Amino acid sequence: MCVVSEAANWNAIALTWTAPGDDGATGRASQYDVRYSTSNISGTDTTTWWNQATQCTGEPVPQTAGANESFTVTGLQQSRTYYLMIRTGDEMPNWSGFSNVAVRITAAAPDTIPPAAVRNLASLEQNFEQNGNFLLVLRGACGIVSPETQGRVSLAQDVANVWRGWPIVLEEPAREFQNFDGVV
To answer: pTM for the full model?
Structure first.
């Protein structure tokens, strides 16, 4: 029986293997015992590793010899290396030898921290009265509107070359400018 670990989620590892039989490679076994640890097997002492490893629950009931089996180990920690093994038992239970060791690193947990809330929102009129200038960003183009330009937009190449700490006004496509001549 060869255990293969599939792509790891941030808190789970999927295992696949071929079902062994009840008596050798024929028939149908009775149970699986899957175990895992974040420690690798030291030397040839597999029994000590096995006895100290975490035992899974909910393993599937074995299918007939030769069938494809799978099981997902859940409740794991993110960004950790896990070592996994499986044994098969029959009705007595007689236990198989240890499978090969499947090794997989779980992924990093998904980002669950939301962005900070805006704390300095103000209306355009208020900022225009206070500063007399603002930056207009219109469908990817940007420019300055100021008393000196008499309400006309002075287009610029990019925001970094224009922005002087003034409020930024974004115009979304919802506001159509028919025959835009640069006057706001």
So the answer is: 0.60
- Phi, psi (degrees; rounded to nearest 5) at 175: -100, 105
Name beta bridge partners: 80. Answer: none
Q: Among the ranges 14-28, 49-63, 102-116, which has the highest mean pLDDT value?
A: 49-63
Do residue 128 and residue 101 come from a single domain? no
94 and 15, same structural domain?
A: yes
Alpha carbon distance 178, 183 (integer Å): 12
Q: Does residue 1 contact residue 85 with C-beta atoms inside 8 Å? A: no
Count CA atoms closer than 13 A to 70's CA, side-chain side. Answer: 8
Question: Residue 16: in which H helix or E strand, if any?
Answer: strand 12-18
- Contact between residue 73 and residue 123 where contact means Cβ atoms under 8 Å apart: no
Residues 11 and 101 in one domain: yes
In tens, the pLDDT along 55-113 reads: 999 999 999 999 999 999 999 999 999 999 999 999 998 999 999 999 999 988 888 88
